[in-house]
Design a protein that fits this description.
Layout: H1 4-17, E1 20-22, H2 40-44, H3 47-54, H4 61-65, H5 69-82, H6 89-100, H7 110-118, H8 122-133, E2 135-139, H9 150-155, E3 163-168, H10 170-174, H11 176-185, H12 198-213, E4 215-222, H13 233-249, E5 252-257, E6 259-260, E7 273-274, H14 280-288, E8 294-298, H15 304-313, E9 317-319, H16 329-343, H17 359-383, H18 391-411
Parallel strand pairs: 1-2, 2-3, 3-4, 4-5, 5-8, 8-9
Antiparallel strand pairs: 6-7
Helix pairs in contact: 1-17, 1-18, 3-5, 6-17, 8-17, 12-13, 15-16, 16-17
The protein binds D-fructuronic acid (FIX) and zinc ion (ZN).
């Protein structure tokens, strides 16, 4: 039997020791070479920090973009770490990483930090970051439409088993007229008006890439206006190609809903925003395609409660992550608490969305702290009824939350 303090300690310890399967990142298998970003300059020019820097910079957008990466990192360091205290979550994250790597952050010495990173070989650094973050596996975001990534898949390479793939298809669903010529050039007989064998050929394309990538799921990001059913290319393709493909391959379709791309194009990758979406689209998909599996994360805080309620109604829906602008302690805590209260352990509370390898360390250290706190409260509530959770039960539960539930869902 646990005394209350001991129960909290056990939960924190289990959360700390349980390895995570990070189900959505923008990291790459080291075989992709320079596509796998790491190191202090990449950490500093993360697009979250670029957006924050422009609020402090007295610098025209073009001037910033004409700088080298190192100069950009210098400018961000000056604006966000030296001229002001690095309070924001993304700034704090950089310091968490440096501290975990054993570096002395209080010196505020960027050249010394660069010297430290220059000593690392990427292969060793991958292992170091995965160890420090206690991440057992990372899911990449793999787009056949990315001209830097596609040739690597086409050439072939020996897979690092710590990096698994997911098939990302935004251009297919969001920009069909401009995607048709590409598919045709790759040998798929598709037409803009969906005539002939178009849907069958899109399915052949999805099947070929599912096999090439060994894709764990197929995924797309969608705007707040996403609707289903609808008389548009996106809905037609989902209905007649993605859904049958998903059933044929037993593959889940991941919907990341609520992003407004390029609200400020002068910020480039940092220029995306968000909007509240209509949950009816998710409800309709889950209901109409009950033999398909769906993963869903939504970007707007306002959508979180109804998404959970929808998951209560449809067992073919798995909710995941506190995505992007939600990945802040106050909001993670609120959302995680609500999800546990509404759907218990049948969800994946967090993914990292890392773009830089080192970020695994901070994203998971911060998320673990929050999850440990919320879970401890929940087990305390159980203990108050006389239901004492054992360590083995807590370990089982945390394993579920750290990717185990998703793995079962995908296999079911
Ligand atoms: O669409 C996505 O997968 C988003 O996560 C990214 O595009 C976004 O830029 C990001 O890095 C958010 O964390
Ligand atoms: Zn992402």
């Amino acid at each position: 039997m646990h005394a209350p303090a001991a129960l909290r300690e056990t939960v924190a310890d289990v959360v700390h020791r349980t390895p995570v399967y990070d189900i959505h990142t923008h990291l790459y298998d080291p075989a992709f070479g320079e596509l796998l970003l790491w190191g202090i300059d990449e950490l500093l020019i993360y697009h979250y920090l670029i957006a924050e820097s422009f609020r402090q910079f007295d610098l025209p957008y073009d001037k910033f973009w004409s700088m080298t990466k190192k100069q950009q990192a210098d400018a961000i360091w000056q604006a966000l770490f030296i001229d002001h205290s690095p309070i924001s979550e993304a700034c704090r994250g950089v310091l968490t990483v440096l501290n975990a790597l054993g570096l002395d952050v209080k010196k505020r010495d960027l050249p010394a930090l660069r010297q430290h990173f220059a000593k690392w070989q990427v292969g060793d650094f991958v292992t170091r970051c995965l160890d420090l973050a206690n991440v057992r596996q990372v899911c990449m975001t793999n787009s056949p439409f990315d001209d830097l990534e596609r040739p690597v898949w086409e050439r072939g390479f020996t897979r690092d088993p710590r990096f698994v793939g997911a098939l990302r298809i935004d251009p297919l669903l969001l920009d069909w007229p401009n995607t048709v010529p590409k598919l045709r050039a790759w040998g798929y007989d598709v037409s803009v008006d969906f005539g002939g064998q178009t849907f069958g050929e899109v399915r052949r394309f999805l099947g070929d890439w599912t096999k090439k990538i060994d894709a764990q799921y197929c995924m797309v990001s969608l705007t707040p206006e996403f609707a289903f059913p609808a008389h548009n290319d996106t809905a037609q393709l989902i209905q007649h190609a993605i859904m049958p493909h998903g059933r044929e391959y037993g593959q889940a379709f991941a919907l990341m809903i609520g992003v407004k791309r390029n609200v400020n194009p002068r910020l480039r990758l940092a220029g995306d925003s968000l909007g509240k979406a209509d949950i009816m689209a998710v409800e309709n998909l889950c209901s109409e395609f009950s033999d398909n599996k769906f993963l869903c994360t939504m970007l707007s805080r306002e959508n979180q409660h109804e998404l959970c309620v929808t998951a209560r109604k449809f067992r073919n829906l798995h909710v995941f992550g506190c995505w992007w602008f939600l990945n802040n302690p106050s909001i993670i805590e609120e959302i995680t608490r609500m999800r546990l209260e509404l759907i218990g352990l049948s969800m994946t509370p967090q993914h990292s969305d890392c773009r830089v390898l080192d970020q695994l360390v901070y994203k998971w250290q911060h998320s673990r702290g929050l999850l440990g706190k919320v879970l401890a409260d929940k087990y305390e509530d159980l203990a108050a009824t006389g239901w004492e959770p054992t360590r083995a039960e807590i370990e089982r539960d945390v394993h579920e939350l750290f990717g185990g539930a998703l793995e079962r869902f995908l296999k079911s």
